[in-house]
Design a protein that fits this description.
The protein is an alpha+beta fold. It has 27 helices and 26 strands. Strand 4 and strand 5 form a beta hairpin. The relative contact order is 0.04. It comes from Paenibacillus rigui.
């Protein structure tokens, strides 16, 4: 029976195929989309080449299959119901289905299926297929991208925005609420809200810059906004204009980020870079950049700019007394006093240490004088610190643009030079830069440059002034005095010794003087007088120099001069400046046999205590007392020296009357222009060889 039934079904299938063959031939053969026919059991009975290509099965394989194994399991039941509906009700069905090709590839298909009627009876299902795999993949990709973009749009910390200039439609990302404190809906409802929240002071510049976008250029700028809660924040706004075909801007797209943290960091870095940590004032870097701006404005306006350079007088001694922390507190209080003397907006800076600089513009010379006087008065008021009162003053130098320079370097330099000139004139005063200062500075610069090579080029020479005993009427010694044979003429030590000390050349120069003087004195001793001594001035730097004693001892050995005939002169101030070190050095020299003289006695500390401490042999009375005929003081010094068994030499004896008076009160050793000015060695040699010279000379006295 089963065989008969199968034969009948087979005959029906062939019959159905024969009946449809002609009508479906073109569909199956030429349709680019897959087409198929299923029998009532869902078995493939016909299909075109596109179906074979889609599924990957051969004709024989597909004819032996139903559609069931092709459908993904989760959709199989739904497809069966749809198939049943088509064959039972006879209705068309459109649906999407996913199936597996022979290769295992998952295909997404759109199927249109309808019943096959032959002789009024449904004999199967015919279907046409659209392969949606690529479009579905693209759709899914777009959906994924859209989701990702939305997630980014919703979660990014920057505010993404877009505004149509014609419709005023506005779109903003959720981050706007974090940055602005206003909701997305508020920005959508009020297209002008973005403008209303711009900080009022920044709005004109923002509007001005935005006008540049009319030509289609993107704009990147920073400005402040006022949040809904009133907080002011900094934002960075990058806006891109979108043009229509006519080249007109129709939409603005932008990204806004909160840069408040960065701005605060920049402010802190700016403060560190441009402000003094101790006083809070601007620093040297700030004031130099500021003067460039001020000069540029003054050049356009044809106005003057004044630079005030201030340096505290005697701050070092106060700082040593208070300690560094106390000195720092004093500087803080000084800076506040100075600032209160200025006009609103006048730039002031701490240049370093106890130096300050001020820029005054849109002012007259009278205005500047008044401000400078206020500063002098304010600073000079006593400071009470650590239960003590301290008085500090300041010296002020002033330069003027454009008279003294057209940029910051010469202006600050000349104000600084004027300030030092004020110190030299007595401190606590104002000094305008002038030609006298300029000439002095130029000469000092010439001396500084020349000193660096003067020793190497043997430009130094020694002159000697005789020291005469008016009782024995003979030269007992000489004082060696250095001179500089410069191209500009013979230069006095009064002019270059201090510079040599500041430049650090004094030690080398002093060593040369000692050696040269010892050699010369040794020659004179062999020529005329064995007991002749030479006196050489020592500086503070030489006393402080490590190895000075050893150096001097080596010179004595080298020149073979008996130490008894070398006298070294120091001033009272040099001896007292570092009494402990001076005492050690001088005691060592004295132990070698070198004599110690105090030069210009009576003009320094005039303390009797150090006379007993130091190994002094001779006091040289300062010429000031002799010129002013202060015989009482001279007599007291001589008496004191006699009581201490010290020798005395009167300096600066220039007249016969001075010689008589000093001789009559008991001083016999003298030097000065009445005897001889400082002269070259050969002149001294002639004095020594003429043994009766001083007898004849002194007879006139």
């Amino acid at each position: 029976m089963s065989t008969l039934r199968e034969n009948n079904l087979l005959m029906e299938r062939h019959l159905m195929i024969d009946n449809l063959q002609e009508s479906l031939l073109s569909l199956f053969e030429y349709n680019p989309d897959p087409c198929y026919i299923l029998d009532l059991r869902g078995k493939f009975i016909a299909f075109n080449d596109a179906t074979l290509k889609l599924t990957g099965y051969s004709k024989e394989e597909l004819l032996a299959m139903t559609f069931h194994p092709l459908i993904v399991p989760e959709q199989l039941e739904d497809v069966r119901r749809t198939f049943h509906t088509i064959v039972t009700i006879g209705m068309k069905a459109d649906f999407e289905v996913m199936l597996y090709a022979k290769s295992g590839e998952l295909l997404h298909l759109s199927v249109t299926a309808m019943p096959v009627n032959i002789g009024g009876e449904t004999t199967g299902v015919i279907g046409m297929v659209k392969n949606l795999t690529k479009s579905k993949r693209l759709e899914q990709s777009l959906l994924n991208t859209q989701t990702q973009l939305k997630n980014i749009f919703d979660s990014v910390k920057v505010c993404l925005w877009s505004r149509h200039l014609v419709t005023e439609e506005t779109q903003v990302s959720p981050a706007c609420e974090v940055i602005y404190g206003f909701s997305q809906q508020q920005f959508v409802d009020n297209p002008y809200l973005w403008k209303q929240v711009i900080y009022p002071d920044d709005l004109p510049d923002v509007e001005k810059r935005q006008r540049s976008m009319a030509c289609g250029e993107a704009l990147s700028h920073e400005y402040r906004i006022v949040r809904a809660d009133g907080e002011v924040r900094w934002v960075h706004d990058y806006t891109v204009p979108v043009l229509n075909q006519a080249g007109a801007v129709v939409r603005l797209d932008g990204v806004i980020s909160d840069i408040s943290v960065r701005k605060k960091t920049e402010e802190r870095l700016y403060t560190l870079a441009y402000h003094d940590a101790l006083t809070g004032l601007p620093n040297r870097r700030f004031i130099r950049e500021r003067i460039r701006t001020v000069i540029g404005q003054a050049e356009r306006k044809r106005t003057k700019v004044f630079i005030l350079y201030l340096d505290l007088d005697g701050f070092k001694s106060i700082n040593d007394s208070l300690g560094h922390s106390g000195g720092d507190r004093l500087l803080q209080r000084v800076s506040k006093r100075i600032t209160r003397c200025l006009r609103q907006g006048d730039p002031i800076a701490r240049i370093g240490g106890d130096e300050f600089a001020i820029i005054l513009e849109e002012a007259t010379e009278t205005d500047v004088e008044l401000i400078a006087d206020r500063i002098l008065e304010a600073v000079a008021k006593p400071f009470r610190m650590t239960h003590q009162e301290f008085i500090v003053t300041t010296s002020i130098g002033i330069s003027v643009y454009p008279e003294h320079g057209d940029h910051h370097e010469p202006l600050f330099k000349r104000a600084d030079q004027a300030m030092y000139f004020a110190k030299e004139k007595g401190k606590n005063q104002i000094q305008w830069f002038n030609q006298e200062i300029s000439d002095k500075v130029e000469r000092r610069l010439m001396l500084e440059q020349g000193l660096r090579k003067a020793l190497l080029q043997e430009e130094f020479v020694l002159y000697y002034q005789p020291i005469v005993n008016v009782v024995t009427k003979r030269i007992v010694g000489t004082e060696a005095l250095i001179r500089w044979k410069h191209a500009a003429g013979l230069i006095s030590p009064l002019e270059f010794i201090q510079i040599a000390e500041e430049l650090g050349h004094i030690v080398q120069i002093g060593e040369w003087v000692l050696r040269t003087a010892c050699i010369q004195n040794k020659m004179w001793q062999g020529l005329a007088r064995e007991s002749l001594f030479v006196s050489v001035n020592l500086s503070v730097r030489q006393l402080e120099q490590d190895g000075f004693v050893e150096s001097l001892q080596a010179i004595l050995e080298e020149t073979e001069l008996d130490p008894r005939y070398l006298h070294v002169e120091i001033t009272e101030s040099a001896a007292i400046k570092n009494i402990h070190q001076a005492l050690t050095v001088l005691q060592t020299l004295s132990s070698l046999g070198v004599s110690i003289s105090i030069d210009d006695f009576g003009t320094g500390y005039s303390s009797l205590s150090y006379l007993e401490k130091l190994p002094i042999h001779t006091l040289k009375i300062d010429q000031m007392f002799i010129r002013s005929n202060q015989m009482a003081i001279i007599k007291a010094i001589i008496a004191m020296a006699n009581s201490l068994n010290l020798c005395v030499i009167a300096e600066g004896v220039e007249t016969k009357e001075q010689l008589r008076r000093i001789r009559d009160i008991g001083c016999s050793d003298m030097q000065g222009y009445w005897f001889s000015e400082p002269v070259q060695p050969q002149i001294i040699e002639s004095f020594l060889l003429d043994t009766d010279l001083w007898s004849r000379f002194l007879e006139k006295a």
